[in-house]
Amino acid sequence: MNxxxxxxxxxxxxxxxxxxxxxxxxxxxxxxxLANHPGNNRVAVxxxxxxxxxxxxxxxxxxxxxxxxxxxxxRLREYPEGPLFAHITGFFSFTFGSDGIERTYGAELAGRSxxxxxxxxxxxxxxxxxxxxxxxxxxxxVQEAAAGSLGSRRGAVVALDPRTGAVLALQSFPTYDPNPLxxxxxxxxxxxxxxxxxxxxxPMLPRTYRERYAPGSTFKVVTAAAAIERAGELAVKDYPVLxxxxxxxTDQDLPNFGGGSCGGMLPNLLRVSCNTGFAQMGLxxxxxxxxxxxxxxxxxxxxxxxxxxxxxxxxxxxxxxxRDVPALAKSAIGQQDVTATPLQMALVAAGVxxxxxxxxxxxxxxxxxxxxxxxxxxxYASWQRAMSAENAxxxxxxxxxxxxSGSGTRxxxxxxxxxxxxxxxxxxxxNAHAWMxxxxxAEAPTVAVAVVVESQDGLTEATGGRVAAPIAQAVLSAALxxxxx
Amino acid sequence: MTATAVAxxxxxIPNPRSKEARLLLMVGLLTLGAYVLASLxxxxxxxxxLMPFLVFxxxxxxxxxxxxxxxxxxxxxxLLPVAAALNGLGYVFIARLDTDRAAAQATWTAIGIxxxxxxxxxxxxxxxxxxxxxxxxxxxxxxxxxxxxxxIGYAVNGARLWVAxxxxxxxxxxxxxxxxxxxFASYLVEKRDLLARSTRxxxxxxxxxxxAAAPILLAWGVSILVMTAQKDLGSSLLFFALFxxxxxxxxxxxxxxxxxxxxxxxxxxAAWSLFEHVQxxxxxxxxxxxxxxxxxxxxxxSSYALGTGGLTGTGISLGSPQQIPAAETDFIxxxxxxxxxxLGTTAILAAFLVLIGAGLGIARRAQHPLDKLLAAGLxxxxxxxxxxxxxxxxxxxxxxxITLPFVSYGGSSLVANYILLALLIRISNDNGRQAAALEAQx
Lengths: 485, 442
Hints:
The structure holds two protein chains of two kinds.
Chain A: H1 2-29, H2 31-35, H3 42-49, E1 55-56, E2 62-68, E3 75-78, H4 86-89, E4 92-93, E5 97-98, H5 100-104, H6 106-109, H7 114-120, E6 133-136, H8 140-150, E7 155-160, E8 167-173, H9 186-198, H10 207-210, H11 220-230, H12 232-235, E9 239-242, E10 244-246, E11 253-255, E12 262-264, H13 266-272, H14 275-285, H15 287-297, H16 325-332, H17 342-353, E13 357-359, E14 364-368, E15 374-377, E16 382-385, H18 389-405, E17 419-426, E18 431-440, E19 447-457, H19 462-483
Parallel strand pairs in A: 1-6
Antiparallel strand pairs in A: 1-2, 2-3, 4-5, 6-14, 7-8, 7-19, 9-12, 10-11, 13-16, 14-15, 17-18, 18-19
Chain B: H1 3-12, H2 16-43, H3 50-71, H4 79-97, H5 99-122, H6 133-145, E1 153-156, E2 159-165, E3 168-170, H7 172-196, E4 198-202, E5 205-208, H8 214-230, H9 233-251, H10 254-274, H11 276-286, H12 297-309, H13 332-365, H14 369-393, H15 411-441
Antiparallel strand pairs in B: 1-2, 2-3, 4-5
Helix pairs in contact in B: 2-3, 2-4, 3-5, 4-5, 4-13, 4-15, 5-15, 6-7, 7-9, 7-14, 7-15, 8-9, 8-10, 9-10, 9-14, 10-11, 12-13, 13-14, 13-15, 14-15
């Protein structure tokens, strides 16, 4: 029997050598691939349980923090302000990943990015790596003004500093509470997620930078800019007073909202938001020029904001109008094929405010390691040049007229010169999105805003001025009192 | 030879027990170190129950050592330390994965050591098991089929392996394999001549006497029955492999291996075509990635764990092996691979190889055929079972759930393996005694 026992031993040895070979295959040859496989969430678990930095507002309010808890994940992500900053911070979920600042600056918050780690090298042996803290340019005061004035109407408010592109407020309603999504009981997290994603109102959609609306008459600022910048003679052309504009190539007419009559030169057309005048101006400027001007304000490009998955705003290619001239007239007044995110319209206002230069929008102001040392600060840069400084000043003065005595008087802030433009974008039937873009103080702007309120009753140009302008007013006031305390 | 000469001769042979004691001390320190590391990884502090843990570990090792010293002083000094190292490392990982189960595993370890001592006390000579041949057969079959008895038997994860008696639940199949190994050894030693005789030839293959082939067919039938009735592929495979290997060793006839392999593949094919769950196991084995979130989840998680562990592992308590379903039981090897890396898994493989080598060495040195066959059979249980589960966890072979001896969480398995170890030590002691007697006669 000894021979068999010996053979048995050799056979066992062979089997174990095969096991050893397979282990080398898994743990050495394919180790990297398996460790970093998209389905392998071990890196996520490590990040998830790592001490994570705080997210703070410009005025020092902590809006996301990690607190120690007694679960396998060790630390729970908390959002002390609940829904107020949800569309900025995003959430930090084990099952569903992250969004917002939590996503963009995930590596820094987790202490995983190179520059954070190098600073930590000295502490590696003493502690586990600490996450860095991210401070935003968003302030709670402005954010609260935006949230409070928008209230429970669906829509979005964007406020930014036109000089730098620093974002001051981003309010989107409906919103959501990121706390349940960041909890540890994954069954409850799943239930919360399904409730939110199935909700008809889409509370998790950041309308500020991921939703496009027809910009309505606020787009007339772009049309006006195209005329001033590219066809100077049109800026002084006297447009006839009309009730409707007879569109070429069709028996369609383009009426003014509410059936009124209007006309005159550019400043007056803008002040009263004259559809017939701007539609004709769009035809006069031409598809080429209008498309180029829209492009120079940022249409067609993803705004380089430091938030994930921002949407492009859309203006058709010039050739698209070759066979459809009426569409050009309608696009010139922000209808038909033009769609814009509230962020993009805020950038239009900011571009005019900043002497024609559109700055890159940015939410992060600075990142500091746990010891308070600066890791990175916002690198403000220009994004687009939309107009010359002189032409921007001309347009600014016209926009001042809108708020001083035109359709946007409700955006006026006592003691400050406000420039703006209202908008009403027809949606279905008698409903319209109410718009307002504005900036102040007109002489040296420090804040630009865009407001959209979805599906309001009443299809007149007054809708934007009635519904959206007061929100712009509240946000401008809050931001101005922040910058001049 | 004078009495002084005998004493001098005895002195030249190093006492295996002092070697064992030194090895056990090392095992104790190893376990303690791993336990402290696990706590440091989790809470960055030394475990609060360090003293109780130390007392318990060294206490159980000391008890087992003293029992061997007293009842089997000439046994191999390797078996207990290797088993204790596996048991200790397994315990550290169970404690790291599930504190409640760690307490249960500690209790079962104590019961296992008691069963180990009890076996050495009751079985004074392995050959005496011959007298209880049919009792062992009946007990083995009875235990194997016990989970099928309505009322007390129940299924976990689809496999009907469990028996509940009041508050106590256990897997009788774990004990059955030892009883059956003892029965096979005793039966085969008596019938080996009959079974070795070939009466017919089929071309180059000489076939054994048809009537003598009846037992192997019976064993095959029973294993198929167990597989279908209890849905336990692992146990039936182990049971069948054990019988074929012992038959081959006993008869010294390769034809039995060929017949066994043929029957195995026939049975496997039949099971594959009849049962969806067998087909799904094969499918997952060939390519688990398309179903990584479904039926392939466990094996994919196991691969992630092993890959993440890499060469040196994440460190104990610093990985995420809790994501692997059944990480404390069948998949504990993947948990070890994640946190101790290839170095840790290789150490486990080496430990089992040492255990198997020692077991087969005992079989080779045994004088009596029954001792020989029993030692070979018991060692085969450890080797085959280890290969089945490690091959499954590493996706070398299709996965069939079974515990990793001494390492996995599970009371029945631990107790059964300590009984198995005690039997090997008993046979080893008999070998040592005979060797010493031979030496003395010279």
